[in-house]
Specification:
With about 70 residues, the protein is α/β, with parallel strands linked by helices. It has one domain. The protein is about 40% helix and about 25% strand. It has 3 helices and 3 strands, in the order E-H-E-H-H-E. Strands 1-2-3 form a 3-stranded parallel beta sheet. The chain starts with a strand and ends with a strand.
Length: about 70
C-alpha cells in the first residue's frame, strides 16, 4: 500500500529517511531553506553523501520538496 508521508527537515537524517521512504511511498520533504528545496526538486543532494546522491540521480523516487515558513 502506497502511503503519503511528510518529512520535516532535509538535513542528513530527514533527507535519508525521505529518500528511503520515497522508493515505495509518496514523500513530501519540507524545509525552511529554499536552496535545499530547489536542489532536492532538481534531484541533487544538498548534503554530501554518496548514497543519497546516487539514489537521487539514479532511482525512481516519488519525492517532492516544499518550502515551509
Amino acid at each position: 500500500m502506497n502511503k503519503k508521508i511528510a518529512v520535516a527537515g532535509t538535513g542528513y537524517v530527514g533527507l535519508s529517511l525521505a529518500v528511503l521512504l520515497a522508493q515505495h511511498n509518496h514523500v513530501t520533504a519540507v524545509d525552511i531553506i529554499p536552496e535545499k528545496v530547489e536542489l532536492i526538486n532538481n534531484r541533487k543532494s544538498p548534503i554530501q553523501d554518496e548514497y543519497i546522491e546516487k539514489y537521487l540521480a539514479e532511482k525512481e523516487l516519488d519525492l517532492t520538496a516544499k518550502i515551509v515558513k
